[in-house]
């Protein structure tokens, strides 16, 4: 009897690029009580899971399982029998060399309901991201997906090497890197010309994608020299030559660059997605944690007396967030602000204010406090009361100049930025292993906190090969004062400006 309450979704999580997840798969992850995933399924997808979902990691690399297949199966059965909805994420497609068939059979045996959600298999997508179409009318009329994992000494083999060798099919081997020598040997021994083109694509569709090409004769040596390891797809056939013409993913401007993001995790997503779309691999080392002000009384009192103010000025997205959170917590809404004029330091802050239905009266030419001051010089500020909710530690340029113009400024701590050293060890080991190309700084505190993480380290050695990208002159000055010379500086001083400056620098370097 099928147990109707619990259910297991065998989900194809795609080959690595999180954008290749299907809409149906995403919806399943969003509603699942339990998410079970292994090393081929991108952990980025876990962000879609419910906050209280159980997240279970079940596997490392081929053969090196954290949980054996039997234990995984029993886990799925057990969770479903508790009446839970289980999303079992599998790399690529669950029914393409993914053991999804075995899992389904076992679920059936135990009377557990299941559904299969096909995914984008690496067998097709890794070659596609390497510029290799697995079929092409001029070159091949069929394609075979073959396990490269079969023990070459197995007696009753299903491997029809003579058929593979004699056809003009594109041969796509999965799990074959360790066995490459045998694959090549068997194909050649069965008559496949030794000049047949071959490609290996490792971690296809991700920013770590690595491709090597050659022929049956040369490929083993090339793979060895490139130290290319699993997981990779092996493609054999004339279509491999099309890569010369059709390669596209590895031509992205930041392809393969390993870039550290130091800003607070909650704010990193915009920068991360822009860089990832340009081919970069983003390593998130948030150096900052943003917390509400310890004493919320001053902000609350300012909001109680909001009628007394003429201007509300925001110098950061966080200022906007914490101001409105407090306003709403106090049972008020934007109607309390109808009499005020507004100023914002930059376009993103302005946009965030816009989310609350408010248009900023002032947006400076360039995005720094000095420019806000210039913008205010056109206003009559004499006797005007200004509320400035912002970080505990902040620059004094703005309040000082507004005061000089005759305004009465109430600077109020709306939030604090504190050091986040959760990822300190990860950062140090990545620097030790030379795994970082560029570190981005999006504010002065990201620089000083980054350097705090490296306290007592040999920074001269660790940072020797690293490029630094700064969001603007104030951040760059802070960097210089701490012994770091930014190689890249954004103009305009925005995230987009920073990304554009990085593209320009990498283009310059060729
Ligand atoms: N169900 C998966 C395949 C699982 S078998 C799918 O449909 O993609 C594991 C093998 O898949 C690996 O040994 C490797 O050959 C291949 N593989 C999975 N993800 C890959 C990727 N991103 N790039 C290259 N090969 C990958």
Determine Rg (CA atoms, Å): 28 Å
Provide the CATH top-level class of the largest domain.
Answer: Alpha Beta
Residue stretches low in confidence (pLDDT < 50, at least 5 long) are none
How many helices does DSSP assign?
19
Integer tally of domains? 4
Q: What's the overall average pLDDT, rounded?
A: 92
Structural class: alpha/beta
- Which compounds are bound in this model? S-adenosyl-L-homocysteine
Head-to-tail CA distance between termini: 64 Å
Shape: elongated
- Main sheet overview: 5 strands, parallel
Strand order of the largest sheet: 3-2-4-1-5
| Helix share bin | 25-40%
Fraction in beta strands: 15-25%
Total strand segments? 20
Which architecture of the largest domain would the CATH scheme give at its second level? 3-Layer(aba) Sandwich
Topology:
Blueprint: E1 3-12, H1 23-31, E2 34-38, E3 54-59, H2 69-81, E4 85-90, H3 100-109, E5 112-117, H4 122-129, E6 143-147, H5 161-166, E7 170-174, H6 180-189, E8 197-202, E9 210-215, H7 219-226, E10 232-236, H8 243-246, E11 258-261, H9 269-277, E12 281-284, E13 288-292, H10 297-304, E14 311-314, H11 317-329, E15 341-344, H12 347-355, H13 369-376, E16 385-391, H14 397-404, E17 408-419, H15 424-432, E18 438-441, H16 444-453, H17 459-462, E19 467-470, H18 473-481, E20 488-489, H19 495-509
Parallel strand pairs: 1-4, 1-5, 2-3, 2-4, 6-7, 11-12, 11-18, 14-15, 14-16, 16-17, 18-19, 19-20
Antiparallel strand pairs: 7-10, 8-9, 8-10, 13-17
S-adenosyl-L-homocysteine (SAH) is lined by residues 15-16, 40, 62, 90-93, 96-98, 121-123, 126, 174-175, 201-205, 230-233.
């Amino acid at each position: 009897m099928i147990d109707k309450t619990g259910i297991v979704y065998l989900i194809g999580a795609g080959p690595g690029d999180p954008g290749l997840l299907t809409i149906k798969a995403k919806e399943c992850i969003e509603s699942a009580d339990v998410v079970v995933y292994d090393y081929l399924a991108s952990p980025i997808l876990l962000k879609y899971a419910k906050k209280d979902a159980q997240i279970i990691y079940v596997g490392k690399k081929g053969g090196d399982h954290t949980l054996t297949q039997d234990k995984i199966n029993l886990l799925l059965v057990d969770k479903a029998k508790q009446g839970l909805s289980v999303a079992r994420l599998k790399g690529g497609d669950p029914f393409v060399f993914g053991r999804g068939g075995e899992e389904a059979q076992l679920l059936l045996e135990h009377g557990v309901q299941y559904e299969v959600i096909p995914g984008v298999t690496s067998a097709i997508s890794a070659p596609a991201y390497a510029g290799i179409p697995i079929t092409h009318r001029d070159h091949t009329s069929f394609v075979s997906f073959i396990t490269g994992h079969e023990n070459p000494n197995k007696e009753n083999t299903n491997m029809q090497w003579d058929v593979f060798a004699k056809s003009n099919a594109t041969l796509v081997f999965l799990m074959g890197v360790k066995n490459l020598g045998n694959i090549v040997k068997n194909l050649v021994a069965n008559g496949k010309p030794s000049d047949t083109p071959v490609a290996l694509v490792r971690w296809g569709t991700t920013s770590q994608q690595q491709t090597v090409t050659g022929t049956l004769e040369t490929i083993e040596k090339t793979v060895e020299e490139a130290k290319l390891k699993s997981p990779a797809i092996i493609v054999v056939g004339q279509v491999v030559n099309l890569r010369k013409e059709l390669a596209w993913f590895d031509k992205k401007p930041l392809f393969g660059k390993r870039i550290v993001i130091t800003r607070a995790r909650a704010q990193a997503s915009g920068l991360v997605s822009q860089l990832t779309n340009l081919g970069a691999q983003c390593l998130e080392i948030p150096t900052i944690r943003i917390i509400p002000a310890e004493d919320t009384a001053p902000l609350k009192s300012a909001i109680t007396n909001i009628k007394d103010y003429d201007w509300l000025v925001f110098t950061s997205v966080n200022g906007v967030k914490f101001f409105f959170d407090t306003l709403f917590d106090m049972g008020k809404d934007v109607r309390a602000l109808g009499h005020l004029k507004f100023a914002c330091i930059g376009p993103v802050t302005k946009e965030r204010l816009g989310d609350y239905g408010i248009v900023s009266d002032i947006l400076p030419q360039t995005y720094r406090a000095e420019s806000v001051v210039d913008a205010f010089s056109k206003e009559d500020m004499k006797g005007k009361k200004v509320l400035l909710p912002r970080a505990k530690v902040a620059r004094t340029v703005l309040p000082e100049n507004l005061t000089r113009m005759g305004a009465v400024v109430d600077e109020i701590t709306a939030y604090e930025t504190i050091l986040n050293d959760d990822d300190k060890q990860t950062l140090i080991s990545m620097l030790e292993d030379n795994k970082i190309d560029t570190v981005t700084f999006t504010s002065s505190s990201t620089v000083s906190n980054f350097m705090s993480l490296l306290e007592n380290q040999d920074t001269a050695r660790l940072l020797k090969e690293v490029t630094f990208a700064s969001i603007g002159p104030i951040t760059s000055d802070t960097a210089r004062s701490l012994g770091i010379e930014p190689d890249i500086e954004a103009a305009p001083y925005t995230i987009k400006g920073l990304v554009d400056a990085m593209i320009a620098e990498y283009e310059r370097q060729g």
